[in-house]
C-alpha cells in the first residue's frame, strides 16, 4: 500500500514538474507585402530603404485601455559606442474587431538595425513584445 501511494505521489510530482506548460506571448511579424491570411508566414527581417515595412502585432491578452504605443528605435553606433535613437513612435487605438492584433506599415529611409517595441497604455513600463529588423542598402 505504501509503495502504491509513493508511486502515485511521485507520478503526480513528476507530471507537474516536467509538463510543458506555456502561455501565449505577444509577437511582431514583418513582411514586404500587406499581411493577409495567405502570406502571413512569408515574414522577413531585411528590407530596403524607402520600402513599406508591413507589420502585424499579435496580442493574446485583452488590453483594458484598448490602446498601444509602438516605437521604432534605431541602434546607432556612430559615436563608437552603442547608442539608441527613437526613430518613430505611434499611439494606436484598437478597434472592436482588432482586440487581439494590430497591423499597419512604416517606411524607413535610413539603413541600419532597428527594434520595434510595443507597449500597452495599461502599463507603459512593461514591453508587450519587441522584434528586430534591418534596413540595408
User: Residue-averaged pLDDT, rounded?
Assistant: 85
Separation, N- and C-terminal Cα atoms: 73 Å
- Biggest sheet strand line-up: 2-8-7-4-5
Beta-strand fraction estimate: over 45%
* CATH class annotation: Mainly Beta
Count of domains: 1
H-E order: HEEEEEEEE
Structural class call reads mainly beta
Number of strands: 8
What sort of overall outline do the alpha carbons produce when their principal axes are compared? globular
Percentage of residues in helical conformation: 10-25%
CATH superfamily: Macroglobulin (MG2) domain
Largest sheet: 5 strands, mixed
Level-2 CATH architecture: Sandwich
Pick out the low-confidence regions: none
* Number of helical segments with 4 or more residues: 1
Gyration radius from CA atoms, angstroms: 21 Å
Which helices and strands, and how do they pair?
Blueprint: H1 2-18, E1 27-31, E2 46-47, E3 51-58, E4 67-76, E5 83-93, E6 101-108, E7 112-120, E8 127-135
Parallel strand pairs: 2-8
Antiparallel strand pairs: 1-3, 3-6, 4-5, 4-7, 7-8
Structure report:
The protein is globular, with a radius of gyration of 21 Å. Strand 7 (112-120) and strand 8 form a beta hairpin. The protein has a single domain (23-135), classed as Sandwich (Immunoglobulin-like). It has one helix spanning 2-18, and strands at residues 27-31, 46-47, 51-58, 67-76, 83-93, 101-108, 112-120, 127-135. The strands form 2 sheets. It has a 5-stranded mixed beta sheet with strand order 2-8-7-4-5, with no helix packed on it. The chain is mostly beta strands and 137 residues long. The chain has 1 helix and 8 strands. The longest helix is centred in the N-terminal third of the chain and has 17 residues, at 2-18. It starts with a helix and ends with a strand.
Amino acid at each position: 500500500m505504501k509503495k502504491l501511494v509513493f508511486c502515485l505521489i511521485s507520478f503526480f510530482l513528476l507530471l507537474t514538474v516536467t509538463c510543458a506548460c506555456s502561455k501565449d506571448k505577444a509577437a511582431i511579424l514583418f513582411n514586404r507585402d500587406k499581411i493577409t491570411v495567405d502570406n502571413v508566414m512569408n515574414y522577413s527581417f531585411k528590407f530596403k530603404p524607402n520600402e513599406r515595412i508591413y507589420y502585424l502585432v499579435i496580442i493574446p491578452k485583452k488590453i483594458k485601455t484598448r490602446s498601444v504605443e509602438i516605437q521604432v528605435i534605431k541602434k546607432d553606433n556612430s559615436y563608437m559606442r552603442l547608442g539608441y535613437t527613437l526613430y518613430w513612435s505611434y499611439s494606436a487605438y484598437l478597434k472592436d474587431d482588432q482586440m487581439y492584433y494590430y497591423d499597419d506599415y512604416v517606411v524607413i529611409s535610413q539603413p541600419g538595425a532597428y527594434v520595434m517595441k510595443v507597449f500597452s497604455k495599461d502599463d507603459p513600463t512593461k514591453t508587450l513584445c519587441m522584434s528586430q529588423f534591418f534596413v540595408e542598402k
